[in-house]
Amino acid sequence: MRSLSAGPRAIRLLVWLSLSWCTLPAVAQGAAPLLPVTEAYQLSADAGTPGVLKLHWTIAPDYYLYRGRMKFKAGDGVTLGAAQLPAGEKHHDEYLGDIETYHHTVDATLPYTVAAGATRLRLSVQYQGCHEVDPKICYPPHTEQLDLPLPAGTTTIGGMPDTRQQSTPNAPTGSLGAALQTLGSRSAGNDQGALPPDQAFRFEAMASAPHQLLLRWTMPPGYYLYRDQTTLRLTDAPGLSLKPTWPAGVVQHDEHHGDATVYFNQLELPVAVEGDLAGRHQLKLDASFQGCQLDGLCYPVMDRGVTIDLTGTGPLATNAAAPAVQMPAAVPVTPEGPPQVSLMAALLLALGGGLVLNLMPCVLPVLSIKAVSVLESGESPARARRHALLYSAGVLSSFAALGMGILALRAAGHALGWGTQLQQPLLVGVLACVMLAVGLSMSGVVQFGASLGNTGASLATRSGPAGNFFTGVLAVVVASPCTAPFMGSALAYAFAAPMLSALLVFLALGIGLALPFLLIGFVPVLARLLPGPGRWMETLKQVLAFPMYLTAAWLVWVLANQRGADAVGLVLVAMVLLAMTLWWFERSRSRGTLSRILVVVLALATVVPMVLLTHVPRPSTATTTAKGVVAYSPQKLATLRAAGTPVFVDMTADWCVTCKANEHTVLDTQAFRDLLQRTGTVYMKGDWTDVDPDIGAFLQQYHSPGVPLYVVFPRNGGPGRQLSTVLTPSLVERALAEAAH
What we know:
The structure is a single chain. By secondary structure, this protein is an alpha+beta fold. It has four domains: 9-154, Immunoglobulin-like (Sandwich), CATH 2.60.40; 192-327, Sandwich (Immunoglobulin-like), CATH 2.60.40; 343-613, no CATH class; 629-740, Glutaredoxin (3-Layer(aba) Sandwich), CATH 3.40.30.10. 40% of the residues lie in helices and 23% in strands. It has 22 helices and 32 strands. The protein has a six-stranded mixed beta sheet with strand order 27-32-31-29-30-28, with helices on both faces. A five-stranded antiparallel beta sheet has the order 6-7-3-10-11. The protein has a five-stranded antiparallel beta sheet with strand order 19-22-16-15-26. Helix 11 packs antiparallel against helix 12. The longest helix is centred in the middle third of the chain and has 31 residues, at 381-411. It starts with 8 loop residues before the first helix and ends with a helix. Mean pLDDT is 75; it is low at 1-8, 17-31, 153-192, 320-339 and 449-463.
């Protein structure tokens, strides 16, 4: 058989197997007849151990079996796990490549589960082997059908045999799977037996809004739920459909489902109801799902039917066999869930948040422009009112446009939130140039008009009204990196509410931001408290230019973390060209047409680096974190939670000023590091400076409008608790102490 002519490897293998099969009858008549396949490879099966089938082959002398040609197929009502086969003898075959073979004997174990009420174990076993001395011949693949009685004493849990001491059919594989199995066996208490299905997978549902449902599965440590084995259906609801928004899960390889996404501990699933509710007050939902126990059994598909109250006044819908787990209201340390506030409360929170936003450091540079503008207008009440209205119009229109854009993109499935426009390097570069131009105007390098309020119109016009309007626009753009107190709950409500209610919340934020200037413009008593204009204001303008330069420097730093040194070089070149353009623009006022053409040329040259900036790739994805900090990933979080480790998750971004303030005052202190060590808590940080789908999914799971987001996961595997966006040492210490118990 080794003398086959040269040819393609696949053709030679086919010819070799065909000739091997064809020569069997001739060889059988020779002096050394080949054994029948069932005598060359005598297979015996032992089903005496519940949940495990033991297979044994006795291999005749001069025969061998291929390890890679063994296959197992389950019969009706049987689910097979991964076969446990010993390592074979390794060698290289001319036709099959690198192979492993068995001689003399081989033992294999095969985990299985059966459906409720089954009394027989039915499956097929396929194998293939060869005769290794003359006549060298290979048998075709041989299949044996096994039909064995289940052992007496086999118990079932939820309709499945108790195989908790064996490998689960759907156990994860690979390095992550090994870690999960180790952690799960330690934390799930497998030696105490698997839980009944309603305790292992507690299902509940509620309506967070008329067209928005929230489904929750809660699993003990060591249990997980399949995403793609979950189906949702409304009954008696023609014209309505469901659109779930799945959060990121743990991806693991499953023998039966391939690369499967699973969820540990708890899954919160927002589900949009599409269609006309037509005055409905209730919805009937049928949910089918499947899950497994790490290093234990896999449950059959579970069906649950619930009735959901759309009015928000009824009890929480839950599977009847398990006690309902109520969702607590929002407090400084809250469990995950959508904000349960009314529209009026959200509007008041938004108004307060917008007012406090005036005091946040990200807004102060732009407010310095407006402050001097108000002082300049103090001599004329009518002029002060006009300034206040135009500024407020710029703020309100910008908040409305920003809100509608974010809500529209999120409805399309994009993970966007408050401040995420600064994830775009081009916008960061443009803002840095705008801040530089405003600063140069305040320093006297270039004048766009007689009033400082006109500096905000530098990109559009030289007239005063446009300058006031553009200053309001600029205030909203630079305010987005900040999240003031009260804003988080208001924005979370807006992101889950209908479009009209959400738009009202964004407008309330704008009114809060513009309120101080509206009061100065329309309350004469306040206006009279302002100092009168004078020569001292020119010095004040020049002093206030430096916060603008610092803001430009901060934006360049953000860009460096997003796209690296190449992006910084390009934006610095653009800023130098912009400064040259503004300098020559000022000098060309009294010159001819040629000088003005040069201004246009310089302005176009400024655009070139910004265009190139859009083509700068992201730097290496290698993540560097400080000592004692773990970079966020859904897989790492699931592994730590399965091990029963308390975790403090910090979602942050370099452009988030509130995040940086919390880090400086609380998280980057020795007291916080000592607290982590004392409570055994892992500090996990996710960086949302650039787009990251995993972080976006995590924010969406906790209904957070953006960063910062702080979630503490307790040791016992309970739900994560969301902290306030503004941290204090006492708040963090109390949350970690509770999580460690």
